Description:
CATH architecture: Orthogonal Bundle
Number of strands: 0
Shape: globular
Low-confidence stretches: 4-18
CATH class: Mainly Alpha
Structural class: mainly alpha
Order of helices and strands: HHHHH
Distance between the termini: 47 Å
CATH superfamily: Cytochrome c-like domain
Radius of gyration: 16 Å
Amino acid sequence: MIRSALLVATALWTALPALASPELARSRICMGCHAVERKLVGPSFKDIAARYASQPDAVARMADKIVKGGSGAWGPVPMPANPKVTADEARQLAAWVMSLK
Length: 101
């Protein structure tokens, strides 16, 4: 009985969408180029949040850029596309970044 309950709980836990957090950012290799509070290859997440804070569509635009990549917004180093990041994960990551402002 307990074993069955653990299996069900594990199945439910793994079926839940990933919550936006530093762990999701690390698992999707965002932290290879970005840090929360300091510039690495790309700008810090706090700097990104500050720049886009006044834009009502910031989460949608950022989510699109997370998946498709981009260039020129922060200097000469382009942000590569991240095709392994789902649209839902990209929205979660963008919302998390915007929460850091």
